[in-house]
Design goal:
- With about 220 residues, the chain is an alpha+beta fold.
- Helix content is about 35%, strand content about 30%.
- A hairpin with a 7-residue loop joins strand 6 and strand 7.
Amino acid sequence: MRHQANSSIVGASRRGLLALSVAASLLSATPAAPAPIHYDIDFTITSGSPPPLPMVGGFDYDSAIPEFTNFVVMWNLHFYHLTAAANSPIEGGGLAFSGACGVTGPALGFALITLAPCVLSDLAVVRWSATEPLDVFLPSRFEFVFATPFGPGQTVAFITQDEFFFPRFFPVPLENRGGWEVTQSAVGSVPEPPTAGLITLCLAVLAGLARRRQRSHTDAARRPI
């Protein structure tokens, strides 16, 4: 009887180890998904009176999709949400930037906002610009502007957003311009949902194996020799 109990334990152990082996092989085959990387924007100002400088600026970008999320700039105590604009930058008059970089959509927006080499190769104008008109029925605007040299085929690209704000904090119309620098913040990767499920499976197998072994020992002890 003890031999049968031991055989049962060995069989259960082998089945548990086989299940763990399969789960571990699937786990190792599932790579961790890179998390979107956060970028901060540090602004400088070159013109404007009075001259409020953007206080906050930043965005998350996932190069694997690609996609912008949480793109926000705070200027003159107002928040401008530029996520949609960065994912679909406007390029008019020509296709110099998308042609030089070989990308469109969010990838082009990322190349523009980070001033990638393919953008700098033919760049004559680069600035952020913010305006707030005196008329409260007109929108305020924050935009990033990029332009090639003036002439035939000049390309002008924008990442721009209009917002309506009430109240206005200054009784005079505002217009400010300046430059910026983008810096990357370190963010770790997070496991994909399948990976998390496989981890749960491994833990469940181990727990089940431990309960079966404990039950087998108990049954063996109760049986007469």
